[in-house]
Amino acid sequence: MGGKKNTTKTASKIKSAATTKNTKQKTEKKTEKKTLNGKTNANDHELQKNPAPKKSQQVSLKSRVNDVLNKEKDPIVNPNPPLVRVKNILISQPPPKESEKNPYVLLSEKYNLNPVFCQFIKSVPLTPPEFRAQKIEIAEHGAVILTSKIALEFFFKICQENRVTVSEDMKYFCINEQTAFYLQKFINYKKRKVFYGNGSLADLVDVIKKNANEKFLVPVNENHRGEKILEMLDVIGVNYTKGVFYRTISACVNEKIKNVKDFDVLVFFTPAGIKSLKENYPGFKQGDTRIAAFGKAAGNAVNEAGLRLDIYAPTPEHPNMPSALEAYIKKVNKK
Q1: Which of these, 90, 95, 94, 84, lies nearest to 114 by C-alpha position?
Q2: Per-residue pLDDT tens digits for 168-218
Q3: How far apart are CA 292 and CA 77, in angstroms?
Q4: In the 8-state DSSP scheme, what is residue 98?
Q5: For the chain, which domains are there?
Q6: Looking at residue 241, what DSSP letter applies?
Q7: 117 phi and psi, to 5 degrees?
Q8: Order of strands across the sheet that contains 88-91
């Protein structure tokens, strides 16, 4: 009798456990069904507390690139430059061709100034052994990014000196239209794939992203510290090779210009130009000589050299250097 009672109790427990299991499964199914029908469970409430950002709130790729390109600090510009009349201007660029409508020449004609063009720096290519030491196989790349005419020239010069044949399928990504057109000196332009921006690296983001399957080659200067294009490519996430193709050195300016103090305004465009100024004229004292710089890198180089930055571009009011110069000259050359 005792055995029969135990058997009955065991059977009752099994039946009860099965009933509990079935009830639990039904409850879970109901909960799942409610969730699918738009109701929420405890986990859904957590998602509601921290909802995913709306598409409009998400940071675009171009915005992230712009953040990289603009993260360099603004230079310190002298708010009260000397109010001394301007007559002689030294512009650290090569002399323009006679056929060119150079903005500095036009500015000088308008205000009766004496402009002198003198390049403070010069660029030279790496020697073939120096380039080969980097172990870069140019032919393995399907695209090249050219950030200046100088980079373009030395890309083809290095290829020639190292007997590298550039494939007709090579794609060229240029900083601006002028650099792109300069390619015509080296390739049959119409048969090649050439892309260019409007002077800003950010303009190239979309077109580079569309060609993200390519392996890019980026010719850079030996002193490429702060090279924005490399940071931009890291943000985009493409496969690229950085290749040093040339170096920039100071030119012997003091052989042509004995006394830089003969000029009222010195105009610079690169940190290397400021370095050359210090090397060519080690005893230079600024005094009333105004220094103008274009771009954050050149402006910061003026500050770091312990010099006074009087005229600066680009700014919202003056997007280019001729505009910034004219605003200042108009002010100090008033009759």
Answers
A1: 90
A2: 899 999 988 889 999 999 988 776 789 988 767 777 888 898 899 999 999
A3: 10
A4: T
A5: 64-120+251-332 (3.40.50.10090), 125-247 (3.40.50.10090)
A6: E
A7: -100, 125
A8: 114-117, 88-91, 265-268, 290-294, 311-313
